[in-house]
Amino acid sequence: MKEIKCPGMHRFPRGKKARAEAIEAALAVQYPDARCALDFEGDPFRLLVMARLSAQCTDKRVNEVSIHLFRRFPDAAAFATAEREELENLVRPCGLYRSKAKQIREMSQILVERFNGKVPADKATLLSLPGVGEKIANLMMGDVFGDPHIVADTHCIRLAGRMGLTKSRNPAVVTKDLEAVVPKEKQSDFCHRIITLGREYCRAQNPKCEECPFKK
Fold this sequence. Notes:
Elements: H1 16-30, H2 44-53, H3 59-72, H4 76-80, H5 84-91, H6 97-115, H7 123-127, H8 134-143, H9 154-162, H10 171-181, H11 187-200
């Protein structure tokens, strides 16, 4: 299937760095208050668990499941001793429930044993936790620890390609491509905003190009 190109990009510079900065500025006007769509209530551990649940699942579904999940298991210590079957049943609506439950339980045990139940503010350590990859680690660093990073989720990858900021669909490559052109201090906000644009207008199927604010 031929990739869609954003018809509104004629408004922006041709060079990738200049284009990215112009897009970032336009997104900031359109979505000044864009933030993480996961309702983690300011709790780093909650965001870590919810980010793992969000793989191949909508944020809306994760938010719904998390209400009951965290009522039953409020912290890392509770997850660390959770019964496998009960935890699997609670996260089942998010899909891939066996692997997600296993990794969340193992991750919680490590946090309790090594970090007193707290989420470490170090990217390399985050990446060492079960189920935590580059995307989750970058989300945690930006939204919890004030160190902005690129979070290359499916929306970000799709829009970055349509906007001519990358030619790849590989998350690691897209991350590097965007890191090279989006100012460091704006990377987390840029991703939240571009994700919001992707949900509202620049959808994978049947994008609303005629209604998109970038087309105007």
